[in-house]
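User: We ran a pulldown and think these components assemble together. Before we commit to crystallization trials, I'd like a predicted model of the whole complex to look at. Sequences follow.
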Amino acid sequence: MLKLHHHPMSAASRFVRLVLGEYGERAELLQERTWEKRPEFLALNPAATLPVMIEDNGPPIVGATVVGEYLDETRGVFQRDRRLLPEKPIERAEVRRLTEWFLVKLDGEVTRYLVRERVLKLEMKPQEGGGSPDAAAIRAARANLKHHLRYLGWLAESRDWLAGTKLSYADLAAAAALSILDYLGEVPWDDEPAAKDWYMRVKSRPSFRPLLSERVRGLPPVHHYGELDF
Amino acid sequence: MLKLHHHPMSAASRFVRLVLGEYGERAELLQERTWEKRPEFLALNPAATLPVMIEDNGPPIVGATVVGEYLDETRGVFQRDRRLLPEKPIERAEVRRLTEWFLVKLDGEVTRYLVRERVLKLEMKPQEGGGSPDAAAIRAARANLKHHLRYLGWLAESRDWLAGTKLSYADLAAAAALSILDYLGEVPWDDEPAAKDWYMRVKSRPSFRPLLSERVRGLPPVHHYGELDF
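Assistant: Here's a predicted model for the assembly, 460 residues in total across the polymer chains.
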């Protein structure tokens, strides 16, 4: 049995949920508010980051990249054509580069700031960092998003899927992050039609359904969030 | 033939050099000053980060984690007892967690700041971010280092090597970062004797020698930096 400590506004958590969905694996989802620094959670992961996965009460598997590799080694390897990492080392390197790009770089320049300022600060107590949103941080994140969206558009235009000819971790990582930004109405899709087409293709996969029906309390998504044709 | 774009003060670059050294691989080293944003380098890696490895004029392999996985798939797998990632997925997950801890978390909280403020700013032009060191950033990084050193000491006390019973990527990642901090005289080794013992064991490996003889122009290391018994 798999348990996944996650948060609906964590792109890294959404990435793992998509991978599990693609491989037909069920997991018990445990929502974690990392800013509360629960001692039981810190004992699982002293870095206090998400996601953390546990299989059969074993030791914690910490972080999206680490969980991704674990799932490739324990599930992906048996998936043949549906495996989300290619076979060749040099092709795997490109998938991993882009997965890191969307889960680390995009997160650190865009997603994390918009989520923090627009969502989490409303839920946090003042001593946890709560309060009114920082308009300068939001502006900076939005400016960065334009560059990232242009790169995404370029990838989507020049390849079938982001890392090559097949759906891979790179697509799920990018779509995990974009789905959060889209929930918040932050994505200027019309600027990058190829990125929009690619996102519609990923979004229509059955693995995406649970994410599209999820709601943050007090913050409904933009109207097209759950629509498969927008 | 392997080419490695690196910088002597980049922990992620040092990590890859140590892995190559352990596996007896030679690489042509190309020093990159990422802050200059050379167009030829940005074409290899638009994220402008180090390291970037190239094998036989193939596509770039970007980032320490991605290079580490590539080297495991193309070299480690043939190394038997000297392989730097264990065989079992759950043990690999622990090695990967710690590798990320030292190359990402420690880097983002300590190493990157001290290197930037104490070394790179002296080399950078004003328009590249050069100038006098920021004393507040240095103080914050030093405070963070104490926590990291305590965690390292705890790992070194409770296990033979940082991730278990064998030398692994986790040890090389930690030692890569610590060697830079040690060069700068930033490590209060006497606070954590178990961490010091562990570092002496890693430091005495032949793969470490090239790092210990390297010098940053105008900034000699602390006197014990190259000594194997300090």
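The first strand of chain A starts at residue 2 and ends at 6. That may be worth checking against your pulldown data before setting up trials.

User: Thanks, that helps.
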